[in-house]
Amino acid sequence: MTSGSTLRFAEKRELILDGAARLFNRRGIKAGTLSEVAASVGLATNSLTYYYRKKEDLVVACLMRSIAALDGVIADVDARVPPGDLAGRVRALVQGYVAMLAAIEDRLRPALIFFGDMRALPQPQAEPAFAAYVAMFRRLRGLLHAGGAGADVALPVVGSAARRALNARCHGLLSQLLWARAWLGRYETSDYPRVATAMADLLLHGLAAPDQAWPAAPLPAPDLPPADAPDSDNATREAYLRTATRLVNDHGVGGASVERIAATLELTKGSFYHHHDTKHELIDDCFERSFALIRGVQWAALGEAAVRSANGWQTLLAATLPLMALHTSPQGPLLRLTAWTELPGALRWQKYITMNRLGERFAAMVVAGQADGSIRLVDPAVAAQLIAGLINALSEVEHWLPGDGPPALQPLLARPLLMGLLAPPLETP
């Protein structure tokens, strides 16, 4: 190729990746097709295959570009902010990441694909994408460690309490960054810097007023009905909902096929269609089931607060920490909230509305805590989204903290996010 043709090839490839990311974010990587991507950028399908022969190759290219973009933010922070300055590093990371999202929203830079469907990729395409994602996670973990992003080898020994704590903090922070893509659209991009400042402040200092303590023992899950559905006592239907939820958490909406769900339960596809007309109807029910569980914990916390005259901080803890126990209980798991981005238009909007309503209840708890002085003065809307991000982080926690049950998850994952990354760690065995 000549230099001119090489430049044109690169420009066209970037146009394809931008169009593909936007399409796959809207339709999911299973539903989106090469012909749709081609049409979105004004190409014939056979012209697009000159750049990417298979859809899976195009998806991997989109994922690698998203990972590289986040890696670039991490590398910039590592180069500019000294390793010992955790507060400066977290602020710079959030500000840099949110600025990148603002540029994408304003179409000043290409779109980036969501990571939710990544586990639906088949081999051999999945291997390089996951390797790059894990490498990015390790660099972010190093950024939180005194050694810096390039010092992963100097981190505490694998399996040690210190290593698990650092993994939890990194997973929690990364989950908050990725969840921000789901809610920042509520703001105009001119407000993004202000929101980034509020988000960084919450991540560093948490919600609790200085005189408020962390619970001495993990809070258990309340005894809740499995769901609000009228036939929630149907064991087979409940089994489908729990299994589908786990598969969506692990493989995305596209990867949770009817065949995979039925095979996991050792049931026939006919049994599936006896309970649900379509897969999207099943996913809708999975969302409603998780919403009912979150709602149940919220109401239980508010009811207990009225009986015991609990302050806002105590009420907020009672509305969030039991969700960790619930997630790993027979009533769990909770569905990954970011799965709403993989649903078709009307259904996506319905789930978005419900998530916002549940978030408003968390925001009201924050306001009540500010009124009684148990919660710091923070932006309650942003605080509610960080609580939602904590719930969303549960869907992948077993990949980064294998074997850690509810008693460990509350101090490891929730405490750094609710009390702040700068809060002194609890003593660990």
UniProtKB/TrEMBL annotation:
Gene Ontology terms, MF aspect: DNA-binding transcription factor activity; transcription cis-regulatory region binding
Domain of life according to the entry: Bacteria
Lineage of source species: Bacteria, Pseudomonadati, Pseudomonadota, Betaproteobacteria, Burkholderiales
Domain HTH tetR-type: 10-70, 234-294
Keywords of this entry: DNA-binding, Transcription, Transcription regulation
Any one Pfam family match given in the protein's UniProt record, by short name: TetR_N
InterPro entries found in the cross-reference section: Homeodomain-like_sf, HTH-type_TetR-like_transc_reg, HTH_TetR, Tet_transcr_reg_TetR-rel_C_sf
Cited PANTHER family: HTH-TYPE TRANSCRIPTIONAL REGULATOR BETI, HTH-TYPE TRANSCRIPTIONAL REGULATOR RUTR
Name this polypeptide is given: TetR family transcriptional regulator
DNA bind region: 33-52, 257-276
